[in-house]
Every structure is written in C-alpha cells, then in structure tokens.
Design brief:
Chain A is an alpha/beta fold. Chain A has eight helices and ten strands. Chain A has a domain of 63 residues. The two termini of chain B are 29 Å apart. Classes of the chains: A alpha/beta (235), B alpha+beta (312).
C-alpha cells in the first residue's frame, strides 16, 4: 500500500509531528500516530506531558512546528483558514468544564451547535430528541445547566458535540470534574457513540476507567509517546 | 429554506437581541450618536439657509446708475458693455424713463396724491437708469467706480451703491455662515469620535461578555461571518435608530422654528426646499446611512482588535 492509500484509510494520521512553543519550549517531539475509523483511543499521561497540545493540533487550534497531520482525509498543511469551520464540523469536542452556555437550556444549547452550521429549525427539532435519547437526557430539554448535575451537564456537552454527527469525537478529560458514578455515565455514553461508528479520542487521568475499558491506550510523557497498546492499562 | 437565508435570519435576530440586552450601554451609545448626527444635519440645514438668505438679500444690493436725459444711446451702450465685461457683474438692466414712471406708479399706488403730483408736473422728471446686479458683493465699490470715470461725465448723472443696511446684514449673515460651518465641523468631528469610541467599547464589552460563546462557536464550526454578523447588526441598529431620531429632531426643528420665519422672503425658498418630500426622505436616508456607516466601522475596528478570528 502506498503512502496516500495509507493516509486515506486512516481517520487520524500524525507523521513526525513536533510542536515548539516559543516560551515554554517543546510540547511534542516528533510524534507519529495512526487512528483507524471507529477506533476508541485513550490518551493518558501526566499534566504537561503534551496531551492538550495534541488535541489542539487535531482541532486545528494550534499549528504544528513541523510534521504532517491528516484527519478524515484533510491535510492540515494545505487546509486554508477559511475552511477551518468546515473541518470543525467533522470533529466534536467535549471539555472538562463542559463549556455550556448558562443562559440557554438543554435544548437551546444543543440547538446552538446546529444553528451555527445552518440547519433549519424543523430539522433541529427532529434531531435533538434523538441526540438527547443517546445521551439519556430525554425529558430534560427545558432544564438550565445550573439545574443539572455535573454528569448531566457533561452529557449535554456530548449531545452538543455529536448532534452534527461528526466523524471524530474528542473528549478532553470529560470526567475530570465528576464523581465516579457520573464519570461512568459519561464513559458509557462515549462507548455507545463509538459503537454507532464515531471515532473517539479520550484523555483521562482516571486509572480505573482506563483499566476497565480495555481499549487502546497511548501514553505520552515529556512530549513523546512512550507506549501504545491495545487493551492497555494505565501506568 | 436556503442555509444562507437561515444563517442571515439567525445572525439578525441574535444581533437585535444583543442590542436590547444591555440597555444602559445601548441608550448611551445611541444618544451620543443622535447628538453627532443632529449636529451634522443642523449644520447642513443652517448652512443652506444662510447661503440662500444671502443670495436672496444680495438681489437687493444693486448699483443704480442714473442717466442724464441728454445722454447719447452710444455712450449708454458703451457703459453697459464696460460694466458687463466686469467679472463681478451678473446683469445690467436698462430702465427707461417710461419704465421708471411705471415702477414709480406701482410703488406709490397707495399714495395717489404723489402720483397725481408727478402728473401735474407734466413732463416725466424721473431719470432713466442702469440697474447693475453683482455676483461678487465684495467688488461692489470697485464696480461703482466704473460709471464715475470722467468719460461718462456727459452720460451719468449720479451713482447709488446699494442700500448700506442690506450690505451690513449680508456681511453679518456671511460671517455667521462661516462660524456655523467651522463650529459644526469641529463639533461633528468631536462627537463623531466620541460616538465611535462608545460603540467600539460597547461592541468590545459584548465580545468580552460572550467570550465563551464565541469560543464554542469557533470550536463547533461557525464561520467568521456567522460570529461577526450579530455585532455588525447590533452596531447597525445604533446607526439606524440614531439616524431616525436625529432626522426626527432636525425635521421637528424645521417645522416648529423654521415655519416662523418662512414668510420672510429670504427664508421662504429654503423652507419650501427642506419641507419638500424629496428632501425629507433624502435627509432621513442620509442620516441613517451615515449612522450605520459609523456603527459598522467602529464595530469592525473592535472586532479586528478583540475577536481574533485570525486564530482559530
């Protein structure tokens, strides 16, 4: 198989990617990484190891200093700035702090993501119940984020991220602020989404989750991949 | 519905919501813009009024050259020609003795004894004359010397240069017009800058308070147009509303104060001009467009500085 054929068959491909910050030094040192479609990948590593930088490179919030990044067939090197919004529509992102809009209720928070991409109101009204069903929040449409538990809020954030049916879902420490029960609620939703065919990239500090999930685990330390094992464990 | 149309509708609704969200800032921004636009519009109106009044008054400011009864037609023609060759002269009208008589009769219609008195004299004692109108009033004394030359001694009986009180009025009006222009330019610049700063700040605050929303919008794939749109709409709303209010104020001024002087001959034309439908529409339209331009320009500056759409 030639280079380009390999590229096409991968959902995510990083080829010798390095990221230097002028002030903070090197965040990532020549990282190479493949992720297949529909894969569930967990990225672990201590704070400051470069996990966040890696995710920011994937969402194109940062540009690599050198190396090649291709996501869903899009080569970031040739991607024009004005096409970034189109790329972002293919990638769903979930954060540790949820980033919900406090003055919008559950329905509006999810609808917001669809409005932004120009979906009509009727289509939005058809889509949202399905999405809320997936994350188990049916009946909470008119609740505001302040009325929800942390786990519920995170599931709203996931609903918002998957409403546009992205090919990839990036979850950056989604369980970081949650107690164990709620954390597992969120992880189960992620597994469900993965089962429906979305590639999931999850970063976490939670050893128990990593060990129980038995998925591919990539460990990053000091900007380098130190291990990459399927069915891996937290070290 | 087309996606673009849906987007446009959402951007507009969101912009209008932003406009009403922070009412104090909205009122302040709109009020300052109303002041600036009103100053600009009043300056234009006062300028046109002064200019028209001056030209109307200037009609009264003529040089009358009274001719001797013995003056030859040739010498009158020569004098007319010389006057017309002067750049400051707009027209030279010959008033014959008969016409002078007619004018005298019309002017003193209400005083039959005076008219009768003149008839008693038998012959027409009124002299023929040349009435000289000017384009450049500052040249009036200069032009006045033309008929006083010695070669016209046999032609010209006497020369009357305008009514001096009219000249004074015109001078006053001209210097007032000058003052109005200068003051209004300075005030318009000051208030224009102030309203730009306030709108700049309003939009900047809106961007800061909605920082999370903007960040989320970027991450979920909103286009720059979709993010910018609401702020442009919000800023345009300041322009639209301020334009409507200020044109309303200026028109109110014209209809309440202007009407009081509209029957004075110097102002009639101006009043009719500013109260014609065409000019009213043009004024409203012009002020709204100017307001929107100022709003959009300052919000673009604020977005360029604070929205950071370059870094995604």
């Amino acid at each position: 198989m030639g280079y380009f054929a390999i590229i096409k068959s991968r959902m995510i491909l990083l080829d010798r990617v390095t990221k230097n910050y002028n002030k903070r030094g090197t965040a990532l040192k020549s990282i190479s990484l493949h992720v297949e479609p529909k894969e569930f990948v967990i990225i672990v590593g201590p704070s400051g190891a470069g996990k966040s930088t890696l995710l920011k490179l994937l969402t194109r919030e940062e540009k690599p200093t050198s190396g090649k990044i291709i996501v869903g067939g899009i080569d970031y090197e040739t991607l024009k700035d004005r096409k970034i919004p189109l790329l972002r529509r293919k990638i769903g992102v979930v954060f540790q702090d949820f980033k919900l809009l406090p003055n919008k209720n559950v329905y509006e928070n999810v609808a917001f993501a669809l409005e932004v991409v120009g979906m009509g109101n009727k289509e939005i009204a058809r889509t949202i119940p399905k999405v809320l069903d997936i994350v188990g929040l049916t009946g909470k449409e008119s609740s505001y984020p302040s009325e929800l538990s942390g786990g519920e809020r995170q599931r709203v954030a996931i609903a918002r991220a998957i409403a546009r049916q992205p090919k990839i879902l990036i979850a950056d420490e989604p369980t970081g602020n949650l107690d164990a029960d709620h954390a597992w609620d969120v992880i189960r939703v992620l597994e469900k989404i993965n089962k429906y065919g979305t590639t999931v990239i999850l970063t976490t500090h939670n050893q128990e989750i990593v060990n129980k999930l038995k998925r591919r685990v990539i460990t990053i330390r000091d900007g380098q991949i130190v291990s990459d094992k399927s069915g891996g464990k937290y070290k | 519905m087309d996606r673009r149309l849906i987007g446009l509708r959402r951007v507009t609704i969101s912009g209008i919501k932003n406009f009403f969200r922070n009412s104090w800032l909205t009122i302040a921004a709109t009020a300052v813009m109303v002041v600036s636009l009103t100053i600009i519009a009043s300056a234009v109106v006062l300028n046109v009024t002064a200019k028209n009044a001056i030209s109307e008054l200037s009609k009264n400011l003529q040089i009358s050259i009274y001719l001797k009864d013995s003056a030859s037609q040739d010498s009158i023609n020569q004098l007319t020609k010389e006057l017309k060759s002067n750049k400051a002269v707009s027209s030279v009208t010959y008033i014959s003795k008969a016409e002078a008589q007619k004018q005298f009769n019309t002017t003193f219609q209400s005083d039959p004894t005076l008219v009768a008195g003149l008839q008693i004299l038998g012959t027409n004692t009124l002299p023929s004359s040349l009435e000289v109108s000017l384009t450049d009033l500052s040249q009036i004394n200069n032009v006045g010397t033309v008929p006083s030359q010695s070669k016209y001694n046999d032609t010209v009986d006497s020369v009357t240069i305008g009514k001096t009180d009219v000249k004074k009025t015109i001078d006053r009006a001209a210097s007032a017009q000058h003052f109005i222009t200068l003051t209004s330019i300075v005030l318009a610049i000051i208030f224009g800058i102030v309203s730009m700063l306030i709108i700049f700040n309003t939009i900047r605050m809106a961007i800061f308070t909605r920082g999370d929303e903007i960040k989320i919008m970027k991450l979920i794939g909103a286009t720059p147009t979709f993010i910018r749109g609401p702020y442009l709409i919000e800023a345009s709303m300041y322009g639209l509303i301020a334009g409507l209010i200020s044109s309303g104020l200026v028109l109110l001024g014209i209809f309440t104060m202007g009407i009081k002087i509209s029957n004075q001959v110097e102002f009639t034309k101006t009043y009719n001009y500013f109260t014609s439908a065409r000019i009213i529409v043009a004024m409203i339209f012009g002020l709204v467009v100017l307001g929107i331009f100022v709003g959009v320009f300052s919000s673009l500056l604020a977005m360029k500085k604070h929205l950071r759409l370059k870094t995604w």
